[in-house]
Specification:
The chain is α/β, with parallel strands linked by helices and 270 residues long. The protein contains six helices and eleven strands. The radius of gyration is 18 Å and the shape is globular.
Length: 270
């Protein structure tokens, strides 16, 4: 019997959402680190307005819906975080200050000011560790060499700079999924595809891919879709269908291959 969490009441949702198809089509796991804007009741909205909690500083808008739809179309399992990145960011190393951000995109987060080690540990134990245990457990239930696909979304502009890409493919040295995915997406001239844009897979802050895939030599990729393209069911369905068609043959080829990762060293971001 699990020990009750000192942070979450029995009436609150768990730290993560997990979905498994009846029949798995590919030994691959989808993750969504920033799926929810929810804040535990004990933390009182972190002192933020509801408008702030509905915004991009709290959640990757549209990413959860995209992850669920893509998982259903591809018939692969998915693990989604259950609480806001402002409570604890599941895609950050815990020593990173942005794991418990005091300021996010210029917005002060009062509930994160001067957190004690005990307060950080409480959030970590209640939310961060269960989420990552679910990711690790999901991968363990799959094949010996499963793939990890992380789903995120990004704002159309940041700090006054426009972000013209519709979708970004993030990767570091393992191009097994990223390279053919970039090629597949770029085959449609109407899609503006970012290669390590608007963020880079080489950014040291990211945790989930590093901890669960890169460190184990598992095929992996992070996919970022622009948030304004995911505001409607039609938009979510469009992008889930597009990504499913692109990813399925790639995963089939990659997961059947037994060759080691092919590293393509490059300097900087594209």
């Amino acid at each position: 019997m699990s020990t009750p969490s000192p942070l979450l009441s029995p009436l609150e949702p768990p730290a993560f959402e997990e979905w498994w198809p009846e029949s798995i089509a590919h030994p691959a796991l989808l993750t969504c680190d920033h799926a929810s804007s929810r804040v535990p009741m004990l933390l009182g909205n972190l002192g933020l307005s509801l408008a702030d909690l509905d915004g991009h500083i709290a959640v990757d808008i549209g990413a959860a819906a995209l992850t669920r739809k893509l998982a259903a179309l591809m018939q692969v399992p998915a693990v989604l975080s259950g609480y806001s990145r402002l409570v604890v960011d599941c895609n950050r190393h815990l020593h990173d200050p942005s794991a418990f951000p005091e300021i996010s995109d210029g917005v002060v987060v009062p509930g994160n000011r001067r957190l004690t080690g005990e307060q950080r540990d409480t959030r970590t134990t209640a939310l961060y560790q269960p989420y990552h245990a679910a990711v690790a457990g999901g991968l363990a239930r799959l094949a010996a060499l499963p793939a990890l696909v992380a789903i995120h979304s990004f704002t159309p502009a940041l700090s006054g700079a426009a972000r013209p890409w519709h979708v970004g493919v993030l990767w570091d040295t393992d191009a097994r999924i990223a390279a053919p995915l970039l090629e597949a997406l770029r085959s449609d001239a109407a899609i503006n595809v970012g290669d390590n844009e608007p963020y880079s897979g080489r950014h040291p802050a990211g945790y989930t891919i590093d901890a669960h895939a890169e460190s184990r030599g598992l095929p992996h990729v992070s996919i970022e879709v622009r948030q304004d393209l995911l505001l409607t069911l039609q938009g979510v369905t469009h992008w889930a269908t597009l990504l499913s068609k692109a990813l399925r043959p790639i995963l089939n080829a990659v997961l059947l291959a037994s060759s080691p990762p092919k590293s393509t060293p490059r300097d900087g971001m594209s």
